[in-house]
Amino acid sequence: MSILRADGSLLERDCPLIDDEAPRPDGPHAISLARWQAETGAPAPHAITVSNDVDVQAVDMPWNDLAEIWLDFPSFVEGQAYSQARLLRSRLGYDGMLLARGDVMLDQLYYMRRCGMDAFALRSDQSLDACRAALSQFSDAYVSAANQRDGILARRIA
Questions:
Q1: How many structural domains compose the chain?
Q2: Which of 7, 55, 64, 149 is 20 to 30 Å apart from 93, CA to CA?
Q3: Per residue in 93-151, pLDDT tens?
Q4: pTM for this one?
């Protein structure tokens, strides 16, 4: 599985997802949000996974203690993680890496980036070159978004 950054580079690092019952290793690792909530007082992991049915605004957690948040896209028709990304960026002030994982498709990458995603765990059937091209398909946007505060509309008004 390749992890493509929003700038088109590959993310090279080892950060395994640890099962909820397995002991946590010393190095970088990811755990589920439920496990992180249950382990009160434990040091923050490098990353957590957040299922797409979680209301991130209702979770009282120190989001910025995490280097990465992995948002799940279980199916290409389920877009709740788009909203989670936007809320984490705009309302909760998260400034770490947001990683899209699961059923991440080439034609959704641009929009995922607009919502605040920084990286994408690509399916094995996705062409890396085609995904890079999809990220640079549009040079500018009309309205502002999580990745661009001043869209064309805001510049015209100013």
A1: 1
A2: 7
A3: 999 999 999 999 888 898 888 889 999 999 889 888 999 888 877 665 545 555 555 65
A4: 0.84
